[in-house]
Design goal:
five-stranded parallel beta sheet, Rossmann fold, 2 domains
Amino acid sequence: MQNFRPLTHARKARIAVLDDYMGVAHRLADWSILSDRAEVTFLTQSIPPERLATELAGYDALCLLRERTDFPAEVLRNLPNLKAIAATGRQNRTLDSAAAAELGIAVMSTDGSGNGAFATVELAWGLILGLMRHIPAEAEAIRTGAWQTRLGNALYGRTLGLVGLGRLGSRMSLVAQAFGMKVIAWSPNLTPERATAVGAEMVEKQALFHAADIVSLHLVLGPTTRGIVTASDIAAMPSHALLINTSRGPLVDQAALHDALINGRIGGAGIDVFDHEPLPANAPERHLPRLLATPHLGYAVQETFEVFYRQTVENLDAWLNGQPTRLVTSQP
C-alpha cells in the first residue's frame, strides 16, 4: 500500500472546500459526520494561483470541485502540510495526481455526474434556443414595456455541425434529430460508422464550418485540441451561423471569435467556458455583441453536485479513519 503523509491526532484535521462559488456545498451532503475529527471551511471565492500556497498552508486536506483551481506539481510541493485531496469527478486534468502520489498525498475521486450526466448538453441547447429566438433580449424588452422587438429563427430544417461526437456530442445529435435538424460531424478520430450510428454524417472539418447553421463543440481539451477551432474555421462560417462552446475555452482562437462577433461576421455565439475562469471583471466577453455568455454552468446542477459532495464526505470520512477510499492511482 502507498505510504501517505501521516495525519496528526493531536488536533482536529483542517479541511478546506475550495471554489464553492454558490455557497451550496454545506447543504448538499452531511458534513456533520466529520465534525468529531475535522474542522471544515467552505471557501466561496477563488484563490489566485500565486496565493494558493500561502492561503492553503494550514490545511490538511482540500476538496476540489472539478477543474476550477489548478494544482500543478509546483503548487503541491509548496504545501508540505497537505495530506489528502478529495477531488470530484473521475478525472481532473488540472490536478497533477502523479506529483501528489510522489509527495505522499492521498488523492481520492468520486463517481461521475449521476442524473446530471447530460446537463452540459441541456445547457448547450439552452444557449442555442436563447440565441435563435433572442430569448434574453426579448425577456428584458418586455420588462421595459416593449413587445416583439425582433424576429427569431426556427431550428427545423437547419444543420447542426458537431465538433466532437463522443458521449455528449452523440446526445446532441439525438436532440437535434428531435428538432428535425440535419446533423453533420467531425473530429480528429471520427469514423463514418460512428457518425452513422448516432444519426450524423461525417464530413471534413472545413465542410462542417462552411455548411453548419450552428456549430457546437464537444471535445476534451488537450495538446492536440487546443486552438483546434482556428481563425480560418470561424471565417468559413456563414454570416448567420452560431458557435456554441460548452467544452473548454482554449479550444477556440479567442481573438478571431471576438473579431467575428464585433464585426458581425457570424450571427452569434453561446459560450459557457473561457480561457480564464472565473471570468475577470474587465474581460471583453462581458461586453461583446452577439454573445450569450454563461459562467460555466454546464455541469453545475444539483443532481451532479449532490453526487460529488456526498461521495467527497464519504472519502474524507474513510481517510480520517485511516482507510482512504476511491484512490486515484495515476495521473488522468
